Amino acid sequence: MDIETIREYCLKKKATFECFPFDEVNLVFKVVDRMFLLIDLDRPEWISMKCDPEYAIELREHYRGIEPAYHFNKKYWNQVSLEADVPDHLILSLIDHSYDEVIKKFTRKQRVAYNELS
């Protein structure tokens, strides 16, 4: 899996856009205005994604290439290696999971904005 495939996959999701809110090397993908994925362009072999806390622990125990995300709340965020033992289909599934986790926590205002977009 490469970052361009991940980028294209993320941008196909409803209400998703990319930006550089922190600096010029941390590419962030947001749904409405909430982050669900980050790629550090200085370390493009790793991506960070939101995850259900119990599922995050399960994944970390099963895959060498999934660990608590650096500079994030480690309870809710994993960093996933694109070069380790994590299959491509699981990476795509985890992107979907991260996106869904963010949407579940939308405020009423964010949900309205999301629903208004096609």
TrEMBL record:
Keywords from the UniProt entry: DNA-binding
InterPro entries, sorted: YjbR, YjbR-like_sf, YjbR/MT2646/Rv2570-like
One annotated GO molecular function: DNA binding
Pfam family, one: YjbR
SUPFAM superfamilies listed in its UniProt record: YjbR-like
This protein's record includes keyword Lipoprotein: no
Signal peptide coordinates: none
Protein name: MmcQ/YjbR family DNA-binding protein
